[in-house]
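User: Can you predict the 3D structure for this chain?
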Amino acid sequence: MTLRIKPLELPLDGEHAVMLKKWMPKTPGIEPLALFRLLLRNPKLSERLHPLGAFQLGNEASLVLRDRELVINRTCARCHCEYEWGVHTAWLGPHAGLGPATITATVKSSANDEVWSVRERCLISFVDSLHDAGTVSDELWQRLLDFWTEDQALELAVLTGYYHAISFAANTAGLLPETWALRFPLMDPFAHR
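Assistant: Here is the predicted structure, written as structure tokens:
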């Protein structure tokens, strides 16, 4: 991949530094992410994207961390966004209880793979359906409501859409993976389809 849009260089000053501080989690030893420095090239866009992202990854979201990370990782994998997939799997995957087999499955496995629980199969099917068709069938909707409320299902749909947007931005810019991030498993994502 070729870098097309260069993220802002460090150190940042003024308005950019203030906004970057909002974006970055309080994790010691992590340099400001290229994605955040990319978004800060357009401060108005960055300012409007931040609250939704902060909500989705924060304590106010109604979804448990494992569900959120499965949605994010699957969405990024389906969008072929190694940058964001790698950041989330390395940074939040362990906190969400995602082991190596599950992380690999977000890229390489179908929704029916045995690696997933019944609940996770439903979640992965939901993400795949939104990615492929932009909607879900009535049957899948009913299965989803066996595990999540309607409000949570709405949250899942918005989370999937948000990470499509993030993936599209990172891919369009040609962001290279962070040095500490995971890389896609050695296989074309979804070659089995």
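Residues 73 and 85 are 5 Å apart (CA to CA). The chain has a mean pLDDT of 94.
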